[in-house]
Design goal:
Blueprint: E1 2-8, H1 14-23, E2 27-32, E3 35-41, H2 42-51, E4 57-66, H3 70-77, E5 90-99, H4 106-118, E6 127-136, E7 139-145, H5 167-177, E8 183-185, H6 192-202, E9 236-240, H7 243-255, E10 262-265, E11 280-283, H8 296-307, E12 312-318, E13 330-336, E14 339-346
Parallel strand pairs: 5-6, 8-9, 8-11, 9-10, 11-12
Antiparallel strand pairs: 1-3, 1-4, 2-3, 4-7, 6-7, 12-14, 13-14
Helix pairs in contact: 1-5, 3-4, 5-6
Amino acid sequence: MSQTYFASISPGLEDALVQELRELGARKVVPTRGGAEFESTYAKVYTILNGCRCATRIWLRVDNFKATNRRELFKKSARTDWARWLGPNHKLEIQARASRSRLIHTGIIQDTVTEAIASRVETNGEIPQLVMARIDDDRCTLSLDLSGDLLFKRGWKTNPVAAPIRETTAACLLRLIAPTTTVVDPTCGSGTFVIEAAHLALGIEPGRFRSFAMDTWSSPPDTLEFTDPTSTTRRFLGFDINPDAAEAATANAKAAEVPFCTFAQTDLFELSQIEAEPGLMIFNPPYGHRVGESDAPKRMFGHLRETFPDWSIACVVPAEVDLGLSDEACVTSFSNGGIDVKFWLSRNS
């Protein structure tokens, strides 16, 4: 039997998510701001959960109903058989949102939904389980998180460095421009762009290295048998001025089962030649609190474009930065770490 689910994402990256969900077998995918609703069977959604690179969370839509007071919210929240998913090993975490509704106090909403679920199933354990109660225009939507930890936490990053781009964001941006040859990140940090590009090329599922909240449910899904990765002759390279970053990225690539990704300490402005077939350079240069020079992203982009005319150059920069490109070169706009940014692509000449 099909049920309705919701995959959340940063606004501006919905196109990548919708494309991915359809490829993974989701049905009736409907994009909305900040995500997409879709239908799937219980068994199929576990495959989607393990294979989805772009979403930040995936939720099961449990119920939707009108609720204008606390009594009505309790009664209708309690009509669901929560024991289908939850048990005594779980510990509830209720998140509440409300707008344009008579029930507006999120604390009251949290307490009421908690009491309603407790009336149907005992949850006094230690395994966290997130439930979302969202009330808009007096209609309440109850959703159950399948993910557990946010989905950017792939499970292989044993050596993070400061201010990396999230894996889910990197996956979205790579999907939007679909590189087919060499991928290079000249400010690689912990290797996120490079490793995500390698995983995408080889078909390595992001769920291979982690577990999910859904694994702990009363009727857990069947264990997935992951397929063997495909092979590739493509190159995946990263450079960073920080020697610790290059070392961390190398360790992360090994943990992520893509040890052929190579990393080295090099200042972007000293890059003059790369021993690989020209392809895509993609990077998230320092900006905001990460760097004191406000023109650094523009100078970095200009250096790479001039030095590597046979390469396509893609970068994430604050929205106000003028790279001298036409509007058509802006792939999308979104928020990265609380900063409004644009993702630009200058194709090779």
